[in-house]
């Protein structure tokens, strides 16, 4: 189970894992993955990221970022600058939403920890940030199936991951996405429509929610019910075998 960019990255890692296991004649032990607001398709068409890409192309300087931060963390202020360009007034609206509900003890309990994290904990390792911007966003390598990963297998080391192996591994993917999500637009959260058991087994669930739905007990409960049902579905719980690959 992975949230946001965690899901974006876990998909090629699962594919590489399947490649390695099949190469050794082993089965793929991981059979299901739940992705929460995880973008994989990032382009200028209908995925919803065109404004973000425009800002990156006009204002992001990888060399400057490297000179400023080297291989330490990108500070919160830099991340917030980009957020404010893509979502005008986002800091005000998040803070306003929190304090407008602060008269309710239950609302504070639900969201105080997350609000604290927004204010204190969003540092981004500089090298990872540069590679994320270039490879995942600007070049859209994961969706184009050109994303390379290292491997202990010399035949796979540094090679692009074969995303089609997720279908051979009978991997079932659940995409849980929101129509009000500006960070991970629904049109970009399409792993379940692209890889794995696209002809049955995968699921795509779209809700009237935003990116941080997890701070709401109601929305989180709905999500967990969906996940439990997905994981309990025996139609995609049979053992995978390399003998079944076509």
Radius of gyration: 19 Å
Output the structural class.
Answer: alpha/beta
Spatial arrangement of strands, main beta sheet: 1-2-5-6
Shape type: globular
**Relative helix content:** 40-55%
- Report the mean per-residue pLDDT as an integer: 89
N- and C-termini, Cα separation: 28 Å
Helix and strand succession? EHEHHEHHHEHHEHEH
Account of the 3D structure:
It is a single chain. This protein is α/β, with parallel strands linked by helices. The chain is 46% helix and 9% strand. It contains 10 helices and 6 strands; from the N terminus they run βαβααβαααβααβαβα. The protein has helices spanning 5-23, 50-59, 62-69, 76-86, 90-100, 105-120, 126-138, 165-168, 191-194, 217-232, and strands spanning 2-3, 32-36, 73-74, 124-125, 172-178, 203-207. The strands form 2 sheets. The protein has a 4-stranded parallel sheet, sandwiched between helices. Helix 9 links the parallel strand 5 and strand 6. The two termini are 28 Å apart. Residues 237-246 have low confidence and may be disordered.
